[in-house]
Amino acid sequence: MSVLELAVERQRYSDATLKTSLQKVFSFPVVLGAALVVGIYVPLRAFAVDPDVWWHIRVGEGILSTHHWPAVDPYSFTAAGSPWIAYEWLGEVLLAAVNRLGGLTALLALNVILAGAVLTGIYCYASMRSRNCKAAFVAVAALLPIAYLSFTLRPQMIGYLFLVLTLIILERFRQGHARELWLLPLIFLLWVNTHGTFVFGLFVLGVYWGAGLVDIHWGGLESRLWTTAERKRIAIVALLCFVALTITPYGTQLAAYPLDMAFSQPVNVANIQEWQPVAFELFYGKLFLFLLVVFILSQVTLRMKWRLEEFTLFITGLVALCLHARFVLIFVPFFAPLLATVLATWVPRYQAQKDPHGLNVIVLAAILGLFLWLFPSPAKIGEAVADHYPVHALSYLRQHPVPGRMYNTYGYGGYLIYDGAHKVFIDGRADIFERQGVFSDYLNISRLGESALLLLRAYNIRSCLVDRGEALATLLAASPEWQRIYGDKTSVLFVRRAPAGGVRGE
After folding, report:
1. Residue 408's closest CA among 51, 61, 86?
2. Pairing state between β 221-222 and 217-218
3. 16-30, 152-166, 188-202, 422-436 — which is least confidently predicted?
């Protein structure tokens, strides 16, 4: 073959490769994935962020500014100086960096990107398992209203993304693609420094590894033994993942924190809403129950076979969600591939040869245009924040300072830390406040216990910034000891008419 013919052949190969790549990019499965992202983008535009995001940003900002990791609490007057470490420091640094880059607008964009990445990752995982992208789309779309509960801007979102990536990598390894497995130690290195959900990653890794060590064919449950090479490879990777968990600014403390959360914070777990069992009276609870019944009935009628590892994960996710609503995004990626596999018995497969790529390009361009058109303005995002947090109250306090200690609603603590002008009574770092007894006192005050007003005196509280609709606001408004000096549709501010006696929490 002449040099000219070789060059022509190479050009043809390059053109064919480019065409194939473009066809994959502008394929119908990609359109389905983009449609799922639209489904989560529309509600996320409201920017109803979790109260903890604000103190996470402040912590990350402190690390970026000082290049030091905190070891004691610097933000409250009730637990000041108590031992405390930034358990999610890497995620907090990311939030702070994005906030520096573009403020609230950039934070909203990050939330959409993370939520979209988690959702499309679950879709890809379900497609791999069911071998039917249409069935995977239907399954994930059905689970979307349930998953939405956890799509809030916190470091845990990055943890959920790592969980989905771990599932995809292990599923590809199970299907014979071994190269990506070596990415897991790096993922766990980032994960342990980002969020405590890495324990679920370890569990997933252990389930996949253990399921390949036994040969089971029991009813609809089966497993496949690892080959000797596969068993050695996954064992070495698992060992490297455990080593990665020790590489943190705090040594092994970050790896141990989930144990502290599980066994040493009973007040936190018993009283914070996201730690409560799934609420079946709400829509997401009813939908969860409906999909679970559909899955059980399909198993009875179709008598499908399930791999040991995927069914173990499903049962684990089911139990976790029933016990704690917080674990929605543990259950959803464990359940989505099973639901997609059931749906694949009715939904026809995608046929690449019939894919209208030109139409796909138009649809994807329309989706991109929709994203840009619907993205809220900075002013709109600011209004959304002011609807949930004491933005205007803090502006009033800057013009009319109130001396002394200020009691605050739990959900306002993070924003007060973000604002930086006041030490807080309590915030979302419930672990340190539980250890100091402050959390129990807060519950007594906020729920109008018998000693509520006495505790305000004991802590030498001179002002109270509370949610407009909470019971304490009504009590303070009726008390001659307190005077309301500011109020808006979100929050109200009270000051004590006379000096308080006694000091607690110095």
Report:
1. 51
2. antiparallel
3. 16-30
